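Researcher: Re-running this chain for the archive, since the previous output was lost when a drive failed. Same request as before.
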Amino acid sequence: MNIDWSSCLEQIQKWQGVYEGKLVVVKFGGALAEDTEIVSNIAKQVDYLQKFVRVRSIVIHGGGKQIDQDLTTAGLEITRDKTTGLRVTDRRTLDVSDRSLRALNGKIVRSFHDTCREIVAVGSAGYDGKTLTAEPCSSELGGYTGHSPMVDSTYLHQLISCTQKPLVPVIYPICWNNAAQDGESRLNVNADDVACALATQMGAVRLIFCADVPGVLDKEGRLISELSPFDVDNLIEEGVVTGGMIAKLKSLGKAGEKMTTGGAVILDGRDPNAILAEILSDSGSGTLVRKDIARIKVVDAPKPK
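Model: Regenerated structure tokens:
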């Protein structure tokens, strides 16, 4: 999406007033997290929003591609639950996953610092400081897979409220297990679920899923610009949404239903302006899920904020 921002000054000024001081949660993973140019572009957009709109940001990232590579190198089997698509995580898989994600987290943080010198990205796992806790799934998922993440927002609020320099928490989704009995207190939690928990429990006005697609497409291949959480199941049942998009859309639907203000959006993270377009333009970007939307609209329709 090529945008002439100089011609959009009126729109930018309008939405600056709406978003100033508000929280935006940005999630990306997969191949996007491995692409230094894409991560750099995300950093630039977060930096712009921090400096010129005074938006507060939290970044959450996955890293399934890197985990799979490292599991293969370690000679461990890659297994996912057929029903939920969640990774089956035993103790050895957990150790490899944590190492992979912490290494990737460090690369992302360095990319933020190298791209935007004025931003301070603070990398961590969800379990650091018990910021994110979760419940263990059934033993069929290996014993170290978690669900229903909860956020202790004290530390995160301190970071994003810092007035001296913009601080951006960059978190990977291995969480603390309060119910642990064997001395191991980590749980591998789906990054989409963690992003939703952060957005809904911390009162974000936008949850932004950066993907490698423009958004949700209808049967004719047109971009659906907005829909309600109640449309999600219908799109899945009708076969409009398939494959890996099903889990993402379900997560967006849950978040859109729980968010008291704003909404959740899936957009093209490969587009260097997509996040800015979503926040600072009348038309937005990608597919917005929000509970006060009356009906599905295709791309031509502008998205109200």
